[in-house]
Give the backbone structure.
Amino acid sequence: MPDRKNTSETPIRTAVANEDGIDFVLIELFFFAYRDFTSDPDQMLAHYGFGRAHHRVLHFVNRGPGLTVAELLDVLKITKQSLARVLKQLIDAGHIVQLQGPRDRRQRELYPTAKGRALALALARPQSRRIHAALQDTGAEGRAFIEGFLKAMVNPELRAQIDALPKAQE
């Protein structure tokens, strides 16, 4: 039985709230939104034995065919070892191909295959439907505000990565 006089082991029975101006409501909304945003792709990926890291790699390779391994590492902020494992699985499954760089033979460029493109689109469709449903009532101004808000959540020195992504076709 723990010593009740030792306050480090005494259970706290009230929820933390409004501590130092922490916005718990928005933090929790991000958790729940992310949980639901990733739920459909997670179920699809499980059929392949893949996880969220595979999804991220597929997404960015499909958005930027020819992306180098170094550029992908910079976007994902993961270790070479983590990427190597995930990339090997995606290559072995026929979703991505890796080619030597035309100027620097040490560089490895990544391209989706038709199979990889189809999977990336299948994963993005339910996420896109969820986003469109959530944006229905906001209008163009609401969308612009949300895009600005989400971009502002990214570290300022990394926002150029967002600007480098292909823009939507009008």
In short: The mean pLDDT is 91. The beta strands are 67-68, 96-100, 108-112.
